[in-house]
Amino acid sequence: MSAQSDRIVPKSCFDCVQSIESVYTGGCVAISQDEQRIFTTCNEDIAVLDMASGQKLADLKGDTELITTFAVKPDGSHLVSASRSMQLAVWDLRTFKIERTFKARDSHILAMDIDATSTLVATGLADGTVNVWDIDRGYCTHNFKGHGAMITSVRFHPSTENLCLVSASGDGDIRVWDLKQRKCTSVLKSHVSAVRAIDFDETSQVMVTAGRDSVINVWNWTRKSLIRTIPVYESIEAAGVLRIDAAAVFNSQKGRVVYSGGEKGIVRLWDLDSGEELFTQTKDRNAKHAFVDV
To answer: Are the CB atoms for 279 and 250 separated by under 8 Å?
Structure first.
């Protein structure tokens, strides 16, 4: 056999075995209540991924305008999204198709939350307005005004009896709205910059807020008073309270732990009661990034 016949001929045609697609381009991220699915912003679409395998299950195709925010119903049946077209879209997560759309006033929606009953969705707008919508019927039930800057975060109180909504704006003001009385009942002033996160502990009696002024504030919900301020020395973009079962592995005094993520690009954990830092993620030396959502 000649040397020429022994020569290996390079292959010029290849079959695609697997494609690695982009599944996140920055912006909102959400996890279903059963922790089976993760939803990510991908330009004008929303990617639906299997939490365990990372496999993409579906693409929720948008209206060609970039997604600004979205939220998933606690019962897992629907997702509500908003885009720069100022339209709200309600997606059926069994069929991954749009069930209905409705116009969301005359300003961009920047923040969103759905109440515990999966009935109402709150939207925070760039003009400082807060609206509450009936998801299934598609009409606005409440229109709240009072903030002097764009809305940066909204969160329903976990109690279905109180029917309270908390909103925060770019100037650091936090307002508590009573949906039954249809008015603002409290204005909390402590932050000096945009508040990016609002959350409650499992008793629903302690509220945690965090923002770009590099602090986490802990509030007594009943008295609407500040309990303590935890300095974190970085601009915070996302924060929340861990479930008690997840927090049990850390040496917290009462098992209440707050997580935060921000400009340093690492996850940090804090004791809610003492303010002590319990854990700091090791930073990846080969990457430069910052958190925008958790």
So the answer is: yes
Beta strand ranges found along 157-264 (DSSP E): 164-169, 174-178, 183-188, 195-200, 206-211, 215-220, 225-231, 236-241, 257-262
Distance CA 51, CA 31 (A): 8
Q: Residue 21: its pLDDT value, please?
A: 75
User: In the block, which residue shows the tokens 């494609």?
Assistant: 19
Check: CB of residue 224 under 8 Å from CB of residue 176.
Answer: yes
Radius of gyration for the chain, computed over Cα atoms and rounded to the nearest angstrom:
22
Is residue 194's pLDDT more than 90? yes
- 197 within 8 A of 153, measured Cβ to Cβ: yes
Give CA separation, 245 vs 1, 88, 158, 241, in Å: 70, 35, 18, 12
pTM of the predicted structure, to 2 decimals: 0.89
Q: Please, which pLDDT band fits residue 264 given cuts at 50, 70 and 90?
A: very high
Residues 6 or more apart in contact with residue 16 via CB below 8 angstroms: none
Cα–Cα distance, 130 to 122 (Å, whole number): 7
Rounded CA separation 30/41 (Å): 9
Mean pLDDT of 72-89: 96
